[in-house]
Amino acid sequence: GAVVSQHPSWVICKSGTSVKIECRSLDFQATTMFWYRQFPKQSLMLMATSNEGSKATYEQGVEKDKFLINHASLTLSTLTVTSAHPEDSSFYICSARTTGFLNTEAFFGQGTRLTVV
Amino acid sequence: AQTVTQSQPEMSVQEAETVTLSCTYDTSENNYYLFWYKQPPSRQMILVIRQEAYKQQNATENRFSVNFQKAAKSFSLKISDSQLGDTAMYFCVLGGGAGSYQLTFGKGTKLSVIP
Questions:
Q1: Pairing of β A112-116 and β A10-13
Q2: Judging by DSSP bridges, how do beta strands B88-95 and B33-39 pair with one another?
Q3: B26-56 tens-digit pLDDT
Q4: Three-state SS letters, A35-55
Q5: How far apart are CA A38 and CA B91, in angstroms?
Q6: Of the candidates B89, B94, B91, which has an alpha carbon nearest to the alpha carbon of residue B111?
Q7: pLDDT exceeding 90 applies to what percent of chain A?
């Protein structure tokens, strides 16, 4: 199957700083990528849908200015957590689906564990 | 709005036995797709099985099979000959139709396979 690479796998940052998470589709073009947040022992919560070359669509309650998403190419989307605070600590997962086929599985990155201290 | 309900937060099964995970969903779409994903302790999401709503035949992948009841909007997963490696969180997922690529996740069922 297709591979989505997410980097870094884990990161620790100081409160008030920003951290960038990368999501790359390695062997296919991903017009659309999705960013999720997962709290311990809970399901995935969709944060935003990222379309190549256009602004991301954020879910209700997700702060656009805090979670900056850039999808500049068909193989790369980035999530930047700006001015991070301890409550932003979580597990973040990206996924991508190939275009044109609604039944295709979503390919997920390995996830990034963010700890803000 | 689409919803997915998994009513079993946790389940356990003896190794080599069979277990069924339940899932119900709601959607107004005619064309949609259903998936079961597993998330082992590594937290990597892995596709287990998929079902196209327009297909009446239940999908099967080796030890994994589904019971898809479209009228009842039910989509259960049966795991036969359970193995220790099946221990994971299992998510029932609904894929939108009409050009929507978003996925709707259930809350998950934590499955533990006991030696």
A1: parallel
A2: antiparallel
A3: 998 888 889 999 999 999 999 999 998 988 8
A4: EEEECCCCCEEEEEEEECCCC
A5: 13
A6: B89
A7: 72
Residue B1: pLDDT band (50, 70, 90) is: confident
User: In Å, how far is A44's CA from the nearest CA of chain B?
Assistant: 7
What's the Cα-to-Cα distance from B20 to each of A34, A80, A108, B23, B63, rounded to whole Å?
29, 40, 25, 10, 12
First to last CA, chain B: 41
CA distance A90 to chain B (A): 13
Task: Return the residue of A nearest to B52 by Cα.
Answer: A103
Residues A91, B45: C-beta atoms closer than 8 Å:
no
Q: Is the pLDDT of residue B98 over 60?
A: no
Q: How far apart are CA A17 and CA B97, in angstroms?
A: 39
pLDDT digits (tens, 9 = 90+) for A43-85: 999 999 988 888 899 999 999 999 999 988 889 999 999 999 9
| pLDDT-based confidence at residue A18 (cuts at 50, 70, 90) | very high
Q: How far apart are CA B67 and CA B31, in angstroms?
A: 18
User: What is d(CA B40, CA A82) in angstroms, rounded to the nearest whole number?
Assistant: 30
CA-angle at B91, arms to B85 and B97, nearest 5°: 135
